[in-house]
Amino acid sequence: MADMIEAKHLIFRYPADEPEDGKEAPVNEPILKDVSLSIEKGSFTAILGHNGSGKSTFAKHINAILLPEEGTMLVDGLDTKDEQNLFDIRQKAGMVFQNPDNQIVATIVEEDVAFAPENLGVEPQEIRRRVDEALKTVGMYEYRKHAPSQLSGGQKQRVAIAGVIAMQPDCIVLDEPTAMLDPQGRQEVLETIHRLNHEQGITIVLITHYMEEAAEADRVVVIDSGRVVLDDTPAKVFSQVDRMKSLGLDVPQVTELMWELRQAGYAVPDGIITEGECLTALEQLLLRSE
Amino acid sequence: MALLQTEGLTYTYSAGTPFEKTAVDHVTLTIEENTMCGVIGHTGSGKSTLMQHFNGLLKPTEGKVLLDGQNIWADKARMRDVRFQVGLVFQYPEYQLFEETVYKDIAFGPRNMGLSDDEIKHRVLASADALGLSRDMLKRSPFALSGGQKRRAAIAGVIAMRPRLLILDEPCAGLDPKGRALMLRQIRDYQRNSKSTVLLVSHSMEDVAEFTEKLLVMSKSKLFCFDDTPKVFRRAEELSALGLRVPQIASVMGELRKRGIDLPQDLYTVEAARDALLGLLRKEAV
Amino acid sequence: MLKDITLGQYFPGNSVIHRMDPRFKIICTVLFIVMLFAGNSLWTLVIGAVFVVMAQLLSRIPLKMSWKSLKPILPILVFTAVLNLLFIADDNILWQWKFIKITMGGVHTSVFMIVRIVLLITGSSLLTYTTSPILLTDAIESLMNPLKKIKFPVHEMAMMMSIALRFIPTLIEETDKIMSAQKARGASLDSGKMMERIRALIPILIPLFVSAFRRAEELATAMECRCYRGGEGRTRLRQLRAAPRDYIAFVICMLFTAASVTVNILFK
Fold this sequence. Notes:
The complex is a heterotrimer of chains A (290), B (286) and C (268). Chain A has 290 residues and is an alpha/beta fold.
């Protein structure tokens, strides 16, 4: 399948603060040191990494909010450096941010969902159709006349997702969309993005701290100090328990337990990330030893 | 010794209007000195409202809050003293920072207490140490710190008041796994060293399982239970019925027990489960 | 609590007045003000009162809501009344104590003023009760459109207004939270001398500003991501379209205003 996103040797550094008089301008350490990554159309990729690893900076490159210092970023074959592509790229790859409050523009839910199509100059009737459809997709249609301040965090994030869907994007990049939500809100958001991925084939790039969320992706990419250090299926990535821990990341409890048992010399299978798998493996182990 | 008690504490929002809602419903409990407690419950279960009663930010519609056996609302002049004894750290406390330097910000609470400069200095440095803030950071503007450091500075500002009861509302929200682990360890160490009581409000069952001795569970405005953490996790099915998850390990171990495997109760951390399983495997191997 | 302040005070409904084109509602409100201030005869008030009662009934806004909008201006009402009672004097003295005189003229004027202000407030608050802030903004934008010719940034103004409306509840909630947090650190916000009180605001205002700037920055990025590029080429989900009922309402308003002006000329 074709690539939705193709990053080739991205290097990026944030500009340093203004130097004091007479001093030489300091140069910041690059936050992206050399990131190359291709993301297939229709896939669900989770990007893990601790704060400051560069994962959010990478996400901002997909949307041309940031432009690489060196290297190229292609979104559906379009170079983000070419200013003529700007709105096409932003329409193809929508973005959802961490703080649900700071990305809702309008005072009424449906008005907010309409914001992007309005900016794109879509005909009013078509906007109406897209808004209704997007709100139905995220299960917020009944709330279309509500004020954002009346909604829970999870609901606000779903409205933000609807606002992106209304652009009819091929890909949605979510930058820690669940970091500020309670467990219920997190679940609502995750169910929504999984459904978008399955039913509409929208490519999902989920940046997260939560390994349970990454465990449900097709692919997990771990970024550490500006480089891709792990890139594989969740089971294979999480099985490297000591590596993950040294990167400052968690693994699911059950994966850790299996790893501990393996360290103690017991032959338990690799790549266990769910409770069910763990239960089966433990039962077999205990029965075998009897 | 009982530190803080509530008797039939009830709080109703917008009483007498169509929007009337009872957020806390007849909660009676006793919080002991020198304990590490977890507080769990859904958003809207009333846990945050309950916490705000402990230091008098909210006044109960009905019932009492007693600190050292004395009703905190009996004498309004005592209220500031109550606030110094019961420290409350809100969610995302970094948004309360305002001073020019981290030092001054941490000193805000102690200064409001009217302490001497020497005492203030002593306390600021001690609480900065407890949260791993370097001397160099104290001189910087709080707005120049990283997210995790800002959070620590804000918590240090409350700890510097030396509260006997410290309430932390989701101190790990939004931190990465490394930041979470460090924060939780620092809070535990602080609790042990200060011998104060800490209430840790959290959505993470894994965190409360690992770090707390007692658990307060709120559900639908009522106190579901307030008991030793292991005893609470034994009621896994009831918790699930409330829509609260138990840690992955607790549910796997519970399921194994149900299937007749001879494992002890109260396994809810990876270490405990590993030790129990290894014990079992070795015994069988002999 | 701060949350109790209702801003914009929109009262959702589906009455004829709710469904009116907001642009016409604004024009009618302006006409209503002209109607009330066309003259000083009793007729002005009668006509104005009939108009307000009619509009109130049609809008199905409960009287309690109108009372709510009047409550904050009660002190102004009392002040106006007292001022007029004391300073408007004619020969018809009702009561006198030393140099304080209360005359029939004073009573007349103060009753007149009170009724006029009450009508003005109840009538014009129907506009905000029946029109959501966003529609109001749309209408103002549309009414101001001709100003674009003289390079007045109409779209930008409207966008700023609607963002302000969007963030008022958020910032109020945030203020509440910051106040609680600082109180928990022993800040005393409701006692002390004037200067102390002003100083006590610093721990509230600084975090509030910092947070407002952070929000503004994040919102700007989010807007850009959603292809915002100013008013150029932008379409709208909601098209303001005048219906026959809007013209009818406009004609009725004109008639009322004309009547008010006419009677004031005739009965002078």
